[in-house]
Amino acid sequence: MWAPQFRLRLTTPRLELRVPDENDLRALAELVADQGIHAPGAAPFQGGWSNALPQVVAGRVLQYLWKGLALSRPGYWNLGLAVFLDGRPVGVQGLQAREFPKRGEVATESWLARGHQGRGIGTEMRTAALRLAFAGLGARYATSAVFEDGAAALAVNKKLGYQPDGIEVHDRQGEPTVLTRWRMTRAQWELSPAAEATAEIHGLDACRALFGSRPHDTPSARQEPA
């Protein structure tokens, strides 16, 4: 299969995360165009990609997902998973890595449509991503970067057990803004609420080679075959 990521699926009590097909992409674009990702004038993401008309942002979401599929390889991969609630997409959970076999480090990023925020979905989808990273792929570290005024994302990091890992100052809309870095080790994950949460991995073996992960790299995990 040209894109083995399509066989991968993560499930939690409420959610399903998977690589979106053509119909899913259309539904995601319509969702973003209809609801938006954040309030007008806010700038929660690096690069300012979400600060545009809803139709433009919808197109950028599709470009992000297509680019991840087209360019991913063992030395660099960008896994964009659509997040589904009751069978309908509500957002995207991303997971990226460079030189994963050597570094064992992944970074996460995500967004939810405005109509689905404030319901604990962001925490639940992150727990699924962390289970994939640590239990599925055998990662040693997971990282996250959040602007200092990103209250919801900061709350998720703290709740799941990430630790502060320094700051950077970025130019955001012409103003210097602090970007906070967060890190979690595998040992910290094993003791965190994220490891206790119910999340299952399906179809991972079909795409291990793409991620640069081997079965014996991973600790015991709640996994099921595709």
Describe it.
- The chain is of the alpha+beta class and 226 residues long.
- The protein has a domain at 4-131 and 194-211: Aminopeptidase (3-Layer(aba) Sandwich).
- The chain has helices at residues 22-35, 54-71, 100-103, 121-136, 151-160, 186-190, 193-196, 208-211; strands at 9-11, 15-18, 76-85, 88-98, 105-112, 141-147, 163-172, 175-185, 200-202, 223-224.
- The longest helix has 18 residues, at 54-71.
- The radius of gyration is 17 Å and the shape is globular.
- The two termini are 15 Å apart.
- Mean pLDDT is 87; it is low at 220-226.
- This is N-acetyltransferase domain-containing protein.
- It holds the Pfam family Acetyltransf_3.
- It comes from Streptomyces dysideae.
Radius of gyration over alpha carbons?
Answer: 17 Å
Helix and strand succession? EEHHEEHEHEHEEHHEHE
The order of strands across the largest sheet is 7-8-6-5-4-3-2-1-9-10
CATH homologous superfamily designation of the domain at 4-131 and 194-211: Gcn5-related N-acetyltransferase (GNAT)
Content of β-strand? 25-35%
* Content-based structural category: alpha+beta
CATH topology of the domain at 4-131 and 194-211: Aminopeptidase
Shape call: globular
Number of beta strands: 10
The stretches of 5 or more residues where confidence is low (pLDDT under 50) are 220-226
Biggest sheet statistics: 10 strands, mixed
Proportion of helical residues: 25-40%
The averaged pLDDT comes out at 87
H/I helix tally:
8
CATH uppermost class of the domain at 4-131 and 194-211: Alpha Beta
